[in-house]
Specification:
35% of the residues lie in helices and 20% in strands. The protein is of the alpha/beta class. A six-stranded mixed β-sheet has the order 1-8-7-4-5-6, with helices on both faces. A two-stranded antiparallel ribbon has the order 2-3.
Length: 192
């Protein structure tokens, strides 16, 4: 090979080496090759667009008024109950408290709100006697508005510090599923 052509070939090889990833990225986002990852890393169902609670008025376990504005400024595990969830909703204080406790040093950034149509059994109410958990009793019109606003009730939801409801879980999930998602979100979330 001619020594005069060798620098040109090296330059061309370097040019192609750096251009190839750019061409591959453009091809992956083009209409000819529709690349979609096979799986997502979240364990809950992502709500697109994020949900919002309707203007509800309820009372917490201390008899104080509660509104959805109380979801601001912390990640919130939200249990949304329906008219027929007495037994299921009674399990939620313990379940959601375990998920919150599993967050370790970041658990102070997580609150729990359980929206129910009527009072819970005394055993469930005793588990909710903490500052991070609110059990909110909704009037019948609030339960109906909740059913219209959220995709599935009863279910457990995860709300971000802005009050957007972003993930949905089954009414009786494996505690590790919301726990893993919440751990990942708390790790990457930056407070401004």
């Amino acid at each position: 090979m001619n020594t005069a052509r060798r620098p040109r070939l090296v330059l061309l090889a370097l040019f192609l080496l750096f251009l190839l990833p750019v061409l591959l990225a453009v091809a992956m986002h083009s209409v000819w090759w529709r690349y979609h990852p096979a799986a997502t890393r979240n364990h809950g169902t992502l709500l697109t667009p994020p949900g919002h609670l309707p203007p509800l008025a309820g009372t917490d376990q201390a008899g104080q008024p509660w509104t959805p504005a109380d979801l601001q400024d912390r990640w919130t595990l939200l249990g949304a109950g329906a008219e027929n969830c007495a037994a299921l909703c009674a399990e939620w204080p313990g379940l959601l408290a375990r998920i919150r406790q599993a967050q370790g040093r970041r658990r102070a950034a997580v609150g729990i709100v359980i929206l129910v149509p009527g009072p819970l059994p005394p055993a469930a109410g005793a588990a909710a006697g903490s500052t991070f958990m609110q059990i909110v009793t909704l009037p019948p019109e609030g339960v109906a508005a909740l059913g219209r606003a959220l995709p599935a009730v009863p279910a457990i939801y995860l709300a971000d510090p802005e009050g957007n409801i972003i993930l949905r879980y089954a009414a009786s999930p494996d505690p590790a599923d919301p726990g893993r998602d919440l751990t990942r979100l708390l790790t990457w979330a930056r407070r401004e």
